[in-house]
Design brief:
Length: 454
């Protein structure tokens, strides 16, 4: 058995001598050194001794303080020590409580030798990696780019573009599907720029109706509208000397688009209800999941504003195009959402399920699925039954969902969306029929006069 227990020190605390001796024999045969304790007090004393253990194995039921109490003291003192809890096979409640209090894993009676050795090995490896990470963090200053995770070729292109434009004052348009991480890219641009000491202000342009969005962006004067009891600075003023990030810019109304264009051209604006020009020193970064070029052609977005925003375009790839990054993303989210210090891991079946799924919601959907699975798994092993995702979401389903989503984004409710879909199908049929309207009607299975409006 290729284990690396040689040179490690394991604390075994159990009030039953036969169990202590059995665990001692199993571990020392693999080269580990053991420290034995028959009570919780002896276990705590061992933790205060000169020789510190690398892993602790604690029985739940032993003379006070019991295993859970010892575990709680270890965690409250901030001691960096993986703890394995010994439980009875039917004590699910105790196991859950132990994991919630920060146990690394548990060993259920009756013991299986291979399981003991592999669990201790994983705990030791976790301790080594944690110490290595702490050492690296002390030596290496925080890098603002570390919030973006992935080394795939598509993400490398994103990093290159960020590196080229971060130090400039150029306006940047970040494009990509929902959930790809566009706001993270904007954060990295800001943190890597000369404005990194200034504010980074985020505005979701789809979250507010037009009247409220204008007040949010530009502020308002006292008495500008009912409820405006005092002057209020808007997000542009709050972002002065820093960066403003306008998310979902494609949802902005034509009137607000006009006012934004002036800010981009002159860096001035008036508060709502005011007539005094306010000048700001800002960098503008915008993001959208829409095809703004297509919206310009359809008259839904100002062409002059589009070109002002799209000085530099950074496209964030969907998760299905960067599958090489899945292991890194999964590991990051497992650590981010661990419960009670418990380090969960995915089974091979769960990994296979993740790899086969299309992730239409991209990285955001993956993070939500991992967080949910960590909570539902209770133990340290996550299986497919904990992921709660559909099997093999297809690219066809995703494309259809995206198309329907774009129709809904146009507004107008169900009738407008159905009319737009109908017109698009008619146009497509005419195109495929080479302009022959009779052939197009036959392709659609409708009378030719129903195409008269196309």
């Amino acid at each position: 058995m290729a284990l690396e227990l040689e040179g490690s020190t394991i604390l075994i605390a159990d009030d039953e001598a036969p169990i202590r001796e059995m665990l001692q024999d199993i571990l020392e045969q693999e080269g580990a050194r053991t420290i034995l304790a028959g009570t919780g007090s002896e276990a705590l004393a061992a933790l205060s001794a000169e020789i510190q253990p690398d892993v602790a194995i604690l029985d739940v039921r032993m003379p006070p303080p019991d295993g859970l109490a010892v575990l709680q003291q270890i965690r409250s003192k901030g001691i960096d020590l993986p703890v394995l809890i010994i439980t009875a096979q039917d004590s699910s409640t105790m196991t859950i409580e132990a994991m919630q209090r920060g146990a690394y894993d548990y060993l259920a009676k009756p013991f299986d030798t291979d399981e003991i050795l592999h669990t201790v090995q994983r705990a030791l490896e976790h301790r080594r990696l944690t110490r290595r990470l702490i050492a690296l963090e002390k030596r290496i200053p925080a890098d603002p780019r570390d919030i973006l995770i992935g080394h795939s070729a598509p993400m490398q292109q994103v990093y290159k573009l960020i590196g080229r434009v971060a130090a400039s004052e150029a306006t940047v348009l970040i494009t990509g599907e929902s959930g790809t991480g566009k706001e993270l890219v904007a954060q990295v641009l800001h943190r890597s720029s000369m404005r990194h000491e200034g504010p980074f202000v985020v505005v979701n342009c789809a979250a507010l109706p037009e009247t409220l969005l204008e007040s949010e962006l530009f502020g308002h004067e006292k008495g500008a509208f009912t409820g405006a009891m005092a002057q209020r600075k808007g997000r542009f003023e709050q972002a002065n000397k820093g960066t403003i990030f306008l998310d979902e810019i494609g949802e902005m109304s034509p009137n607000t688009q006009k006012k934004l264009l002036r800010v981009l051209q002159e860096r001035t604006f008036e508060r709502v209800g005011g007539n005094i020009a306010v000048r700001v020193d800002i960098r503008v970064i915008a993001a959208t999941n829409r095809d703004l070029h297509q919206d310009v052609g359809a008259g839904g977005f100002r062409e002059d504003l589009y070109y002002r925003l799209n000085v530099v375009n950074i496209h964030v790839p969907p998760l299905r195009d960067r599958s090489d990054d899945l292991p890194l993303l999964i590991d990051h989210f497992l650590r981010k959402h661990r419960v009670g210090g418990r380090n969960a891991r995915l089974s091979e079946a769960a990994m296979a399920q993740i790899a086969s799924y299309d992730w239409p919601g991209n990285v955001r959907q993956l993070e939500n699925a991992i967080e949910r699975a960590v909570i539902l798994a209770q133990g340290s092993l996550i299986g497919p039954e904990h992921m709660l995702i559909a099997e093999g979401g297809s690219a066809h389903d995703r494309s259809l969902a995206d198309a329907l989503g774009r129709l809904l984004d146009m507004g107008g409710g169900l009738d407008a969306a159905l009319q737009a879909a109908r017109q698009r199908l008619i146009d497509l049929a005419i195109e495929r029929s080479g302009g022959d309207r009779a052939a197009a009607a036959q392709l659609l299975g409708v009378p030719e006069d129903e195409l008269s409006s196309a």
